[in-house]
Specification:
The complex is a heterodimer of chains A (about 450) and B (about 120).
Chain A (H helix, E strand, L loop, with lengths): L3 E5 L11 H9 L4 E7 L6 H5 L6 H18 L3 E8 L3 H17 L5 E6 L5 H9 L5 E2 L8 H5 L3 E4 L4 H8 L4 E3 L5 H11 L4 H11 L15 E5 L4 E5 L8 H7 L9 E4 L2 E4 L4 E6 L2 E5 L2 E4 L3 E21 L2 H5 L1 H16 L5 E7 L19 E9 L2 H16 L21 E17 L8 E6 L3
Parallel strand pairs in A: 1-2, 2-3, 3-7, 4-7
Antiparallel strand pairs in A: 1-8, 4-19, 5-18, 6-15, 8-9, 9-13, 10-11, 11-14, 12-13, 15-17, 15-18, 16-17
Chain B lengths: L2 E2 H4 E8 L4 E8 L2 H10 L4 H8 L6 E7 L4 E7 L19 H4 L2 E2 L20
Antiparallel strand pairs in B: 1-6, 2-3, 3-5, 4-5
Classes of the chains: A alpha+beta (about 450), B alpha+beta (about 120).
Amino acid sequence: MQSLRIICPNGHLGFAPLRVESFKLGVAAGPHVIAADSGSDDVGPVPLGSDTSTSPLAWQTHDLEHMLLASRSLGVPMIIGSSGDTGSNSRVDLYVRIIQELAAKHRLRRFKLGYFYSEISKEELRRRMRAGETVAGLDAHRTLTEAELDATERIVAMADVHPFIELLEQGAEVIIGGRSSDSAVFAAPAIHHGFPRDQAYYLGKVLECASFCAEPYGGKETVLGEVSAEDVRVTAMHPAQRCTVASVAGHAMYERSNPYFEHVASGQLDMSACRYEQMAEKTTRITGARFRPAPELRVKLEGAGKVGERYVGLVGIRDPYTIAHVDEVIAWAREQVRERFGDSGYELHYIVYGRNGVMGELEPLKHRPAHELCVMVQAVAPDAATAEEVCMIGTRQMFYARLPEVKGSAGSVAFALDEVLRASPAYRWTLNHTLRLGQPLELFPTHMTAAGVQ
Amino acid sequence: MRSKLSEIAKTIRSKNAGVDKITFDVIFASRASYERVKRARILTRETVARLYGIPDSRISDFVEFDAANAIKFTIYRLQPSGGAGDPDIFGSQQYAPLLDLEVPADQGTVTRPAEPGTEYDRR
C-alpha cells in the first residue's frame, strides 16, 4: 500500500450534525478508513461528572448512521474515539448499542464490532498512589492528593493508538473507543498499515477537527487526509472549501498552547520543522513532522468531581445610580445569605452582564458599564433545597438592596421571572494529570462483539 | 496610517487549550501584515499583560508562528473551565480587547516624498 486515505466528517461527533453533501463527496473519493473523534474537555466537567452527554442522542445517531452505512457499503473500517463527549464506559456502551440498532434497522451484513473502555476507578488509582506512583498535575493542577481523589466522581484515561491497533489486528470492522487522544483515532489505522509514526500522528493532528483545517471557515464538513511514507496530504471535500497552506498551518495552533507540539501517552509530535506546500487548489501537502517517543508511557487522566446542586436567578438593572453601585447591591444580597446560612457550605456567584459578565477579571472595560445590566446569580449547595434558597435570597434581596441615594424605592432591580431555575449540578475539573503506565493497554480493555444480521 | 488590529488580521480568536488555559490566535492573511504587526511590537507578552491586567506569570506561552503568519499566546485561567461561575466555558469570547489594538503606520511600507538630499529608509 503506497498511501492510506482517511475521511473525517466531524470534529466533535454529536455536538452538531455532520454536513451530508461533503461527506458524500468524501465517500465517493474512496477512503480506506472513515473516522471521527466524538469527545472534548471543552464542554466542561458536568458531562463527565454526571456521566451524561451534552450532545443530543438524535445528532449522535445521525452521524453514526451516515458513517456506518458508508463504511459497510465501501467495506472499510469505521473508527470513533472518545464516544459521547466524555469517552466514559456508559458512553461507549451507548455507542455500541446505537451501532447494533442501526445495523439491525438497515439489515446490514454481520460485522465485527470492537470497543474499548477508558475509565480508571478511584480505587485503582488510589492503589497506585499508595504504591508510590505520582499522579502529576498538568498546567495549573498540582500533584494529586487522596483528598482530591475523594472529591472526584469519575476518571477517564486518554488512550493512545494502542487499543485501536489491537482491535484492528483482531479484525474489527467498526471500533467504538473510550476516551482517547484525538490524533490517535487517525494515527492508529495509519500505523496499523505500516506508515511511520511521524506521518501518522501528523495525519491525526490535521484531521481531528475535520474542516477546521480548511477555509473559508465552516465546521462539520468532511476533509480527506492521505498519508504516505514521506508526507501527508489533506484535501477539503466541500465544493467551496480549500485546504491551504494558511488554513492547515493555522489549524496547528488550534486549541493548544503551543503550535509546535502535540502530546500523546507514548510521546510527542514535533511540528516545528513542518513544511506546507499547496499541491492543488484544495490540497495542501505537509512534510517534516517528527514523532519523538517518550522514555516512559504517561497517560493523561481527566476527572470531574461534584460540587453540589445548582440554581440560577436572573435580574435586570436600568437605574444608572444602581448600575454604578451594583457591587453594593450584590454585597447586600450576599450579606442576607450570610445571615441565613453563614460563610460556608455553599457557593454564590454573580455574573454581571453589561459590565464584565463575559470576561470577568480580564475585562479592560469593567469600569464602563452599559446603560442596563443583567446579573446572573448562581448558587451551589450540597442539596437542592439549600441551593434553591441560597439562590432565592441572593436574587430577591437584590430587589431590596439599600442604596443611600437611590431615587427608586420600590425595587432596585427588574425581574423577567420572579423565580429561580434549577440548573445542572455544578462539577469541577479535579483531575488534569498524568499517570505512568507499565504497558499501553493496561487501562484500556478491548472487547469484540458483532452487529448486523447473518 | 494607523489601523486597528481587527482591520489587519484575518482571524482573531480565543479558545480553551485544555481545562486550565485559554489560547489566543491572531492570524494574518499576508506575510507583510504579519511582519508589520511584529515590527510594531504592539502584540507582545508585555502588551498582553497590560491589556488584560494580568501578571506575566499568567502568560504560559507567547509564540510568533511564522509558518501560519500568526501570533499566538496562552494564559492561565484562575479556575479550571466549566466550574460554577465560569462565564465562558469554552474560552471563546476572550479576544475582544485585541480587536481595537492600534497598529501604527508602518515605516517599512509607507511611501512618502523624500526630502531633497535625504534617503528614506525603506528597510
